[in-house]
Design goal:
- The chain is built from twelve helices and 21 strands.
- The protein is of the alpha/beta class.
- The strands form four sheets. It has an eight-stranded parallel β-barrel with strand order 1-2-3-4-5-6-7-11, surrounded by five helices. Strands 13-14-20-17-16-21 form a six-stranded antiparallel beta barrel. Strands 8-9 form a two-stranded antiparallel sheet.
- Helix 10 runs antiparallel to helix 11.
- The longest helix has 20 residues.
Amino acid sequence: MKELFYILGQKDSSSLPSFKNSASFPLMKPIPELLAPAGTLQKLHYAFAYGADAVYAGLPFFSLRARENDFSYENLKKGIEHAHQLNKKVYLTANIFARNLKIKPFMETIGQLVNLKPDAFIMSDPGLISIVKEKHPEVPIHLSVQANCMNWKSVEFWKNVGVSRIILSRELRLEEIIKMKEMVPDMELEAFVHGSICIAYSGRCLLSHYMSYRDANQGVCDNTCRYPMKLYEKKSQYYVQDPRSEELYPIDEDENGTYIMNAKDLRLIEFLKEIIEAGICSLKIEGRTKSIYYLATVTRAYRKALDDYQAGRPFDKSLIQELNKVSNRGYHSGFMMNKISHELQNYEFSTTGGQGSPFCGLVEDNKNEFAIVNVRNQIKKGQAYEAIGPRSQKVVHVESILNKKGQEVDLVHSGIGNVMIRFDQKPEPFSIIRALSTPL
């Protein structure tokens, strides 16, 4: 009967009529949770506002996001308490592959981490997992994608260790995932559906460590793989007698070099039906260090796609255009839906701002006549903009702008911080202000 509740849009059975023969009704898979990144406390709030069922966040010392991570025990505790008030979840990332020097600090702080009452730990390192299982066996553990679980026997192994969920390797094909669920049906499976893809095997890369002494497996990757590369061939291999035999000369590149290791971004929004039917319980969005605009836009799009699926509506193709409006490296559907090919790489550029509609501001308060807006791009008096909120999307016109001194101005730019703006229509809380693709 649980599956039937999803068809009827009910959260429980209290208001359902009694069916004598429920087998005569078609059943669908339960709707998976939508899991969003929360790199800051503010992003956590936005993720929930835009429809996430759960977020993942972590403290810098034990997380693979050590840079651009302002979480402390205090604000992480606030975030978890806020989530639980909304009946939503927070998964705490402790997914480094620890060196010896981090074992003692982890053992000393694990009690504090547990006291934060996260809904699960996301972990990679077998040693750290064993510490948690020994000291706090009641805490659920989700196996990080970094652990690179690739087959059903590995799933079975981690189940016996006490792991309750596997975050699947992004190298897996859909049929492999189906086999995992078939062979170990009581293991929860989580899959990435959107965001950046690492050129290395499940992110276990040494390139950053080698090139800039920043270890990706300790949370400080500098994205060396996104740099423009120049390829050279050593002449001495072929021209031993050449006096210039030790020279290097470039091959197969233009004046800009080539982004040889720059993977396109993952986008699986149009394949959610197949993914859900494969038995995935959680759909994960990558991007703890990405902008609030990215977080809000992507979470909103996947929330709508899931809600449409639950209601039996066809996939809304306009969601693809929405996702094109955030920074991306070009999209592909990854290994899950496609065979390996050069189409998965972007050799021409590292990133793009999308296909227009720049992000202009965040509505931080709208209780009065003037909304408080954190300015992220040019906003001009008399101009029309899109106000995109968790539940609405409308065109608004800027009637007046007051700067921090309360003076009326015609134009504000990024870097000015918060200003007061009166729109002709009130934007809802958590709205993002975006330029129109075609200005009015």
